[in-house]
Design brief:
4 strands, 42% helix, 3 helices, alpha+beta, four-stranded antiparallel sheet
């Protein structure tokens, strides 16, 4: 009975997610790594997505770094997560759900 309830809750969540976001669930991935150039090339080649580079300063170390920002579909994000771990297991990245995205590669046709 408990297993059925868990499965039902999971499936209900997926269905509600599809209804609320109409299948346009996007993720904004922010990556800080010592191997940004390799990660950027994989994003450009494997996903054919754009990447924005933002200059940042570490609050703890005071070191200048570059942060990569890329918007991907949820499915693409899971593939990128594996690529990041493959290239730099020590990379710092965080992901936020982008509720609305418009522009090349994301505009509904």
């Amino acid at each position: 009975m408990v297993l059925c309830a868990v499965i039902f809750a999971y499936i209900s969540g997926l269905v509600m997610d599809q209804i609320v976001f109409s299948g346009f669930n996007s993720r904004a991935v922010n990556i800080i790594s010592d191997k940004n150039e390799e990660i950027k090339q994989r994003i450009l080649n494997d996903f054919e997505r754009g990447v924005t580079e933002v200059k940042v300063v570490g609050g703890y170390t005071n070191n200048d770094k570059t942060k990569l920002v890329c918007l991907l579909s949820s499915n693409e994000f899971y593939k990128l997560k594996g690529i990041i771990h493959e290239i730099d297991p020590n990379a710092f990245f965080y992901v936020v759900r982008a509720s609305e995205v418009s522009g090349e590669g994301f505009t509904r046709k």
